[in-house]
Design a protein that fits this description.
Elements lengths: L5 E5 L20 E2 L2 E2 H11 L4 E6 L4 H6 L10 H10 L3 E6 L6 H6 L2 H4 L4 E4 L3 E4 L2 H12 L2 E7 L9 E4 L8 E3 L2 E4 L10 E9 L3 H7 L10 H9 L4 E5 L3 E4 L3 H13 L5 H12 L2
Parallel strand pairs: 1-4, 1-6, 4-5, 8-13
Antiparallel strand pairs: 2-3, 6-12, 7-14, 8-12, 9-11, 10-13
Helix pairs in contact: 7-8, 9-10
Length: 281
């Protein structure tokens, strides 16, 4: 079995929930404590053993490419030095999605990059700590199949996610997925296990993406392609044990900055003192 070395990071979304901020800034470049969110995503891939990354970009996303250039003219600090050290060991490529046509369509743009290899997918606006991808890779090494990270969500959140179905014990850490449903109503949902946004996919996914019918909004959903794949190949769901930070909307972005700043070794002590002083009776 080949070592998993490739990752695809979709980062073409318009970021409409962040307007007017995203009029001039990609949502993936929104700062979370010391770094933009996509920096954390690339770091996760790097620390999980990935060497080649394809970022799927779109309109008004040039800032992402500029960010991952090697910088020699800036005054170095700890974070720039760490970034430059990482970039020396990574090959980062870019392709532009031709219109906003869903996550599945974005992934389809990676076919030439992936070739015949299995690959990881990490969303450009999601931080996981500890790195979720490391857990998925351990399962992939054992089972050699598609692996999807999932997490339990409350009933009111089910309609926002792809939801999985399994006939196995969903209380186990990992289990075979029988079916997947994109954003069902709570009464239609087969479980409370939502697709988290971290995947290891086989190259055959591109065949199923081509067979996937666009949804009512004209978008190709990755969940629908995985539904087709599950009829012919094994998909394993893994309940992620860490903390996921969704930077997809303003409230969660603010929460992420607060939570991560509280544990930051550089500023955490001062932030805790500041918040304590404001909320003490």
């Amino acid at each position: 079995m080949k070592i998993l070395t490739k990752a695809v990071i979709p980062a073409a979304g318009l970021g409409t929930r962040f307007l007017p901020i995203t009029k001039s800034m990609p949502k993936e470049m929104m700062p979370v404590v010391h770094k933009p969110v996509i920096h954390y995503v690339v770091e996760e891939a790097y620390h999980s053993g990935i060497t080649d990354i394809l970022i799927i970009t779109g309109k008004e996303k040039r800032a992402i490419e500029d960010y991952f250039d090697m910088e020699n003219g800036l005054i170095p600090n700890k974070y720039l030095s760490e970034l430059d050290s990482m970039l020396k060991k990574l090959n980062i490529y870019y392709v532009r999605q031709k219109g906003i046509r869903g996550l599945g369509d974005a992934i389809a743009h990676a076919e030439a990059f992936v070739a015949d290899d299995s690959f990881a997918v990490l969303l450009g606006d999601t931080i996981t700590q500890p790195p979720c991808l490391k857990e998925l890779i351990q399962i992939y090494k054992k089972l050699h199949c598609t692996v999807i990270a999932v997490e339990k969500v409350p009933p009111e959140m089910i309609c926002n996610y792809g939801i999985i179905s399994t006939s196995e014990d969903a209380n186990c850490e990992s289990f075979v997925i029988d079916d997947l449903i994109e954003k069902p109503g709570v009464d239609e949902a087969p479980s409370d296990l939502a697709i988290l946004g971290s995947y290891i996919l086989p190259p055959t996914i591109f065949k199923y993406l081509k067979q996937t019918v666009p949804d009512k909004n004209g978008e190709i959903q990755l969940t629908d392609a995985l539904k087709l794949l599950a009829k012919n190949e094994r998909i394993v769901g893994h309940i992620y044990s860490g903390r996921r930070y969704d930077i997809g909307n303003k409230l969660d972005w603010l929460k992420s900055n607060i939570e991560l700043s509280l544990v930051d070794p550089e500023i955490g002590k001062e932030i805790r003192a500041f918040l304590g002083g404001h909320f003490d009776d």
